[in-house]
Amino acid sequence: MSQDPSTFQCQKCDSPLKLDESLKNLNNSQLKLLLKERKTQILQKANSEILDDLKPEEYIPEDRLKTFEEISELNQEPMIRRNYFESEDDEDEDDEGFDDSGFTSGSNSYLVLNESDEFEDTNNVKSESQSINGDDDEERGFKMSNRIKTLSKIFSILSNNQDINHPLSEDCANLLIENYKLKFDQSEKEKESYLLFLRKLKEKDSSLSLYDDDNINPDLLNQNLDKKLTESIEEFQKLTILEKENLQELKNLEATKIELEAQLADYEQQLDQLRNNRLNDILKLKNKLQLELNDKSKKLEQSKAAYDVQLDHIDKLRNLNIYHRIFDISCDSEDKFATINGFRLGYKIIWPEINAALGQIVLLLMFIIKRLNLNLKYYKLVPSGSQSQIIKINSQEGSGKTKTILNLYSSDEFSLGKLFNFNKLDVAMIALLDIVSIIETKLLYLDQEIELPYKILKDTIGGKSIRVTSNSDWTASCKFLLTNLNWILIFVSGHTSGEE
Question: Among 338, 388, 342, which residue's Cα sits nearest to residue 363?
Fold first, then answer.
């Protein structure tokens, strides 16, 4: 319960509570009644237990007891009744904040007043009310604290009488009510089950007729037991006869089993004799020959299937262009870059991929030159994968022949040549284009009607510069170059032989 004197908290969810107006508007008499009823019940129970154990002669003097008996015979009403075992201190403590008349009385006490006393009390009440009206502001806080203290006692009494601590919020109270409803419904179901079971037991007892006017009928009980005993004996005799019949049937089945086993042994002996006869040998030979025939038939079928597979393979090889398998020239999915064996060639392609594509082009040119038996006078191709080279042979008068190595690969390293729009790879690409032009001249010698798709003129092909520094034009020129090489490859594969 909250320690704040003006608020209370739910004892289950600890949420602050707003008291109902009915609790706030309780008058002193109602609050006192709630507390006094429980106290009275406890004291009455204690008083009754103590008085039952004591006798008046043990604790009351004889003269007072005699006087009490004389007064009791007169049957006069007492002026004041008080509980003998109720202490004045307890009354003062419990009635704090609720006593407006100036005195405290127990739950079993009352006061008889005459008319004069009533008149005097009326005057006293009027005078006291005037004084109280002047001190309302001072006593208001005191009364409020007493009221909250009394409500705390009421909640404590409720918590002691139940398993649930009070106060509770509205939601917690609703959940508690729902829980009690579920328990009540479950108890009702159990009650119905027990009543149904009890009803069945009573019906069974009534069917047996063992009870006569709520008492056991011994005659009916003995009669029922004799009847059941007779039925049990008859059933036992029937089961005994059935057991004998089953045993006899089991013996017959065992005898039949022995006869069948003897017949089986005889048949097995006859079978052994048949196996020893010549007919058995002939059957074995027949089976052996049949197995061999089946085996050879399977092998023949396998040979025919293998022959058909080889024929299909030969047809595929005849239709296969080995040159296109070795050098696969095509375009990428976006038809932007030309590719050879999967390596793209063009602007904004990473240099390792470009170097690999140029190496494949050098290898393709070597193959075409050998197929055409072409002798390059001023160039020599050196295919070395991603680091292929072209050796250019220069013949000068007086100094003889000089060789210049042109690297057909590059990297992203910075050089002064790039700064001045010049790159060594440009020279190698121009030499590569010159070699393709020499091959085109050889093809025109073999077939004057052949014409490549894109015309080569110095350092351009199809009107696009072959120089790397031409950026986007270089992509188009590389695409044109691979297209011309693809045409040359098709012509070489169809019009030349492999003999050098």
Answer: 388
